[in-house]
Structures are given as structure tokens and as C-alpha cells.
């Protein structure tokens, strides 16, 4: 009887245990088989780069969980979701500030970096930081021009003529236009070899180019003609300081007579010290980078036309960090309005 009960109990336990074992065994191979089949389906694809893996996950995310796909492709889920968000942002229309940055960059012909672009879009009402502007330029493959050094020298200070003292040493920066003008001569390369010679005069306060002339040679009247044009247009008061280096063109009798006729005082940099005329040198660096950009002028007439356009742009539109990111003309207008509000 005991044996019967034992046998009966044994028979009662086996049916209850078998379905559990059989069910578990039956389910596990099925899941394993599905996973194995999916792994095999990935075997011939073998996406090598991360983006290809992200795209594969995105295509199959409705069939298999993202977590499992990431595990099989050895991709971090966070990396996949970050890629997906970036792609969604790219597919959306660019925000207004981003379009403004690209427009400003193209309008100024690669001449503006992040600082000037920020000032430009701020003036349009977009408050954007430099890091966002930098990322926008990189995303659109835009890169600003970089200033280059220039080799030829135009100063001939071994002429033995009397030189003027440096009246700017130890003096504060001019606070109004037509107090100090600075001038210099530079060489511009010409196609087929040779040079063109450009002389200019700038207002030391506003950075505005007030007079210029370009020739195929460098006669004594090159700087005189540029100065004469500036004097006719600006009509400066008596006592204007006209500063230059010690080149022979600036010690010529004709040039000094022109200064005397208008009550201007001559000032010269110390010999061999380019920093005394740094403002003029800085202008040459900008002009050669932004206008030439490694190129050459076909001839004199083409150079006159291009220089005329660039100097008009420089005076009217180009923002200067030293002028609180205003153009020279706008800076002079600002000074005029301030003097009217606060008369001396």
C-alpha cells in the first residue's frame, strides 16, 4: 500500500513537473533561435562606421528593441539617441539667427570672423554668442580669411633730408576726427610681374581713409596728391598733425609746402620703428588680405576700380573692434551726435 501510495505520488508529481520543464525548455530555444537568426542576418552587413550602425538601428527599431539592436551592433544607446536628435535638428529649418550669420558672412566676402559677425547679427536683433557662430560656420564649411604678412619695403630713410619729430609719442589717442592723420605707401602685386604703389591717409580717430592715390611708379607727388584730395574733401582745422614714416616722399619740398599752406604740422616715426605707424600698417594688412587674398591686379585701371570699391566698403560698412564694432563713417556720426548732446 505504501508502495502504491509512493508510486501514485510519483505519478502525480511527474505530470505537474514535466509541463514546467518542457515549457521553459520550449520557450528558451525559440527566443535563442530568434536572436541567433537576427545575429546571422547582421553578419553579412557588418556596418563599419558608427553612422551606418545608427541608420541600421533606425530602420529596424520598430521590429526589434533599440536596446537589443545597440547590444548586437556594439553601440551605446545614448550615442544612437544623440545622433537621432542631431539628424532631426538638421532636418528642421535653420533658425533665423543662423540664417543671419550665413548671410552676413557671405555679404562681407569672408572678411568677418566671429567677433564682427556677432556684432552684425546683434544689430539685426539676434542675440547669439561667438561659440554658436563658430559652430554655424563650421557646419556650413565657411572659413574667414586670415591676414598675411607682406615683404616689400617702401621706406627710403637714407635720403639725408631733415626729418620731423614724432609728435605722437606720449600723446593720448585723438578724441575727434581731423586732429591726426596717418599715412604710408605700400606695394600691390601686378599680373605678369611688377608692382603698383598705393599711398593713403587715414584719420587716426575714426580709422577712415580720407585720401588715397595709386600709381605704377613711386614719384614724390604720389603722397602729395593723396593728401591734397583729403584736404579738399575734409577741410581740417589749422593745427592738424600729419604723421608718416621718414620716406623721401614725405621730406620732399612739394609735400612740405602743401602742409604749410594748410597750417598742418608734420610728424614722423622714429627711424626703423614700424610700431610708430602701426595704424597704417594694420590697414595695409587688412586691405591685402581682404581685397587681394593672394591674387594680383591685372593693371592700373583695374586696381583703381577695385580699390575705390573696397575703400568705400571699408569706410561705410566694415566694423572695427577699436570703434566698438562700428564702421568709420558710423563712428564719426556717433561722435557728432554725442558732441551735439554734450556740447563743450
Helix and strand topology:
Blueprint: H1 2-43, H2 50-60, H3 66-73, H4 77-91, H5 96-107, H6 114-123, H7 130-139, E1 180-189, E2 195-203, E3 209-215, H8 221-234, E4 241-244, H9 253-261, E5 265-268, H10 278-292, H11 300-316, H12 328-341
Parallel strand pairs: 1-4, 4-5
Antiparallel strand pairs: 1-2, 2-3
Helix pairs in contact: 2-3, 5-6, 6-7
Pfam family, one: rve_2
GO molecular function, one term: nucleic acid binding
Domain Integrase catalytic: 173-336
Question: How is this structure best described in words?
Answer:
The protein is α/β, with parallel strands linked by helices and 344 residues long. Among the domains are: 93-139; 180-341, Nucleotidyltransferase, domain 5, CATH 3.30.420.10. The chain is 51% helix and 10% strand. The protein contains 12 helices and 5 strands. It has helices at residues 2-43, 50-60, 66-73, 77-91, 96-107, 114-123, 130-139, 221-234, 253-261, 278-292, 300-316, 328-341, and strands spanning 180-189, 195-203, 209-215, 241-244, 265-268. A 5-stranded mixed beta sheet has the order 3-2-1-4-5, sandwiched between helices. Helix 2 (50-60) packs antiparallel against helix 3 (66-73). It is elongated, with a radius of gyration of 37 Å. The chain starts with a helix and ends with a helix. Mean pLDDT is 83; it is low at 1-10 and 15-33.
